[in-house]
Amino acid sequence: MLKAGFISLGCAKNLVDTEVMLGLLATNDIKITDNPHEADILIINTCSFIDSAKEESISTILQMADYKKHGNCKCLIVAGCLGQRYQQELLDELPEVDAIVGTGAWHRIIEAINDILVDHKRVLLVGETDTLYDETMPRISTTPFYSAYVKIAEGCSNCCSYCVIPKVRGSFRSRTMESIIAEVKNLVATGVKEINLIAQDTTSYGRDLYKSPKLTDLLKELVKIDGLMWVRLLYCYPKYFSNELIELIATESKICKYIDLPLQHANDDILRAMLRQDGRKDIENLLTTLRARIPGITIRTSFIVGFPGETEEHFEDLKQFIMEQKFDRVGVFTYSQEDDTIAANLPQQLSDEIKQERYHSLMTLQCQISEQLNQELEGTVLDVLIEQVNINESEIVVSGRSYREAPDVDGQIYVEKAMECKPGDVIKARIVQGFTYDVVAEKL
Description:
It is found in: Cytoplasm. By secondary structure, the protein is α/β, with parallel strands linked by helices.
């Protein structure tokens, strides 16, 4: 029996593609192994969103290529965004790579393997931009048994000036509501308690398929599923955040009072240059409405510093905005000058030194805000989903998450007096101490 090793890089959207490819391998009698040395087939699902992601992808490919000399590897496949974006260049410059399987061609992974191992061909499978997985596809979960990501749409049609995603993943295309509901029911039946809905722009769900946003309608159906504890919304753009959606989040207990709202900047000049669809006033109005209607809401966002033409005044404007809004979670990225984007050709490209200075300035500010907000939580009682129980030499360390923490990107709640708990349990705990990223709680 052939053995395959798989490495998934980048975002949760990429991870879903990985899980479906793993399912396809398993249904074709290919055993999955986590030991690259024994793998006959090595597949790297790559990311190419920014420079650091490309560097990580290339480095990983080269590391895995070494197993063609010092392991069992007979088939090295580059899948995902990097392959889609730099398809021929990768084949030309990396002779160790046997196949490129682009973002829209994951369903042809078995075809690629057969062409390599049976016909001894190098393979290039890219260019398909209408592919969508559905509930009938085999899928092997790589997340804990109690949590799963569900991709409700693929691609993006926003065309922000700094972003290559529309070119790499195609235009925005929604899955049918029936397909998503069926998949979530299947996942919950296996013990999944938390569903994290993802897309490049979650709040645009349904605009292409149903001619108007349908995220609210989808959520109304999902919360009816017995056994589902949490539905979490990730990657929600402000443009289609309707009052109806806000009202549903406020009143439906299964929907986490947690919003991931990528804003990218707060200065109107920079937002226009980024081709973002919202101005600062629109953003401020939305944040005010969310907080007024949904007490206790946790808001995560992300910002780009060092965008072409960002002056010191623009940056100070962003900094002041963050000070005023006091977001619970903030991710900061330095602008990456990406080929084939409008922003790459803009004048006034800033130096790496300036980008790094601004990055560290915002991160320092956000650390102070996060610590203050976590300290203000002290005394609060939350439902905590236990994730890890680690037994050290002298103690048992139990940690988990509440509705306030998304998997993989946010901090942890360390729970005292919870030695008898196990992963997947849900307990009540009181926050006793807040730190910059994590908090300490006590089981009730």
